[in-house]
Write a structure and sequence with these properties.
The protein is an alpha/beta fold. It is built from eight helices and 19 strands.
Length: about 350
Amino acid sequence: MTMTPSTLTLATGEIFAGHSPDWQLEPYFGEVVFTTGMTGYVESLTDPSFAGQILVFTYPIIGNYGVPDKSKWESDRIQVAGVVIGNLCSSPSHLDSQQSLLQWLQYHRTPLITDVDTRELTKRLRRTGPAPGAIVIGRQPSKFFDPNQLDLVETATCQNIQTYGEGSKRIIAVDCGMKESILRQLLPFPIEIVRVPYDYDYANEPFDGLFISNGPGDPAKCTKTIEILQRALLKQKPTFGICLGAQILALAIGGKTHKLQFGHRGQNHPCRNEETQQCILTSQNHGYAIDKNSLPKDWKITFTSLNDQSIEGIAHKTLPFSAVQFHPEACPGPTDAAYLIEVFAKQVLGES
């Protein structure tokens, strides 16, 4: 595969030089964001929460352990709009590697730019926030496409109802772009899991627990999901949200959300448990957060980011409703918060 000079161009005017595969004949657009994880590029690239985004890896060497089979992926395909790397490893070495990162990206027609000064690019994104951008070979684009104008959840959700596992209890899992590792963490429990599209009306159906998944984009655009959830909460069944699911839950109870300066993306984000004052390391991928002063009086903050003091978890003071911004399923990332999925499953089973 021949690499040719290319650029990552931001809508704000900055241009970063690099190299791209010569099959990338057209400009490729997306919102340029960065992630701080040292590993986990396979999980990140297949995470539906990254739909519409050009992902910048701050760690300098990416691709060194190749790409494993689909059992380690978070969906059945690469979800990002583009990839920005400092140093691409074209000769991976790992027992589970099935192909190189470069081969994988080409198969999924995912644009790449490498040999980029990702340190300088990340410093720029930290100062002024994410921006629409384009990976380009040749002439610079005159207009830039902003994926945030779309309902990205509509592109990330499942298309049909799917049922997993078995048991006397039933969870409705609302798929806003759900990572497969969340499902893998829930399956060991004796619970039937019914995965439904983000706009499916389950409010009048029987269920013992409700799960709202992660997903891409602005939570305020998920009006149908929010309206259905508001009616479902009246049943007072155990309810748990992750990432976008936390924001949707906050909006459903009358709270507000806002866009973060540059988002939280990576596997090394410290959060404080407000009940125990203990710190845990978490895996995160979100660009929006819940407004602190917008929660109703019968709700409380359960986790706080130690980086910027934003809300990382909420819970009702008396009812079994809770949500976290980070990813307790920890794929990729530390397992400090994995117990939260077990807590939710035990609530559904009536064991806590």
